[in-house]
Amino acid sequence: MSASEEALHLTATDLRMATFRLARRLRCARAADSMSDAQLAVLATLRMHGRRTISALAEHERVTAPSMTSTVDGLEKQGFVVRTPDEDDRRRVQVDITAAGTEIVVETVRRRDELLADMLRELDYTEAELETLRAASELMRRVTDR
User: Over pLDDT 90: what percentage of the chain?
Assistant: First the structure.
């Protein structure tokens, strides 16, 4: 393995471990304790991208359509999403977030952002270090958005 290849693998390991630990801490902050991470992810997707079919949601979340149907069923029972027939193809159903679902996403994001801000505040980062974190977050987004 070349030196650059080894450095790439070490970076991947460090990034994976740091991301996993951070995500685990942030997942604890949510507006509805009974809601799963998968359900929150679907609500966030609907809030960000608007109504979607079950298939589009499943593809976006990288799960099977039956799994997504089960997730949406649970969200619908709680009043966080509604299903409506597609205007162009009545065999297809669109899923949309409700006001209650939007409130859950907004409050969960607020809690997670506040938790992370508190964590950063405790470490008393310099402005230069915060800029480095902002730049790193952009690079990480490029990895995840492809």
Answer: 77
Residue-wise DSSP of the chain: --HHHHHHHHHHHHHHHHHHHHHHHHHT--S-TT--HHHHHHHHHHHHH--EEHHHHHHHHT--HHHHHHHHHHHHHTTSEEEEE-SS-TTSEEEEE-HHHHHHHHHHHHHHHHHHHHHHHHHT--HHHHHHHHHHHHHHHHHHT-
Q: What is the pTM of this model?
A: 0.80
Model confidence pLDDT, tens digit, residues 130-142: 999 999 999 999 9
Beta strand 52-53 pairing with 81-85: unpaired
Six token digits for residue 86: 């597609």
